[in-house]
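Dear H.,

Thanks for agreeing to be a second pair of eyes. The structure we're designing against is below in token form, covering all 84 positions.
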């Protein structure tokens, strides 16, 4: 199971966190969503995982992936690998 650390935006259509959440759902990847505070200074758990306080951060098994572009690239790679 994956864990997505994301902002508290109420919809998946206004931020990069939502884009990652939609992609996880599209791929059928079960995941838990942890909504973190809007203020970066109040995100110590994110910093502990990734060394920075920006979201989204995806924990997938032993991998911790930050940055929405990198996360989406990794999910595309997983999808391609499964299709092969």
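And this is the sequence the design step returned. I haven't edited it by hand at all.
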């Amino acid at each position: 199971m994956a864990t997505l650390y994301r902002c508290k935006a109420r919809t998946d259509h206004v931020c990069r966190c939502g884009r990652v959440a939609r992609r996880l759902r599209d791929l059928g990847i079960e995941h838990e969503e942890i909504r973190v505070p809007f203020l970066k200074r109040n995100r110590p758990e994110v910093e502990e995982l990734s060394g920075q306080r920006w979201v989204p951060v995806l924990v997938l098994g032993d991998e911790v992936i930050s940055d929405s572009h990198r996360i989406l690239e990794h999910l595309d790679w997983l999808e391609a690998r499964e299709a092969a």
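Two observations from my side: The chain has one domain: 2-83. The chain is about 40% helix and 20% strand.

Warmly,
E.
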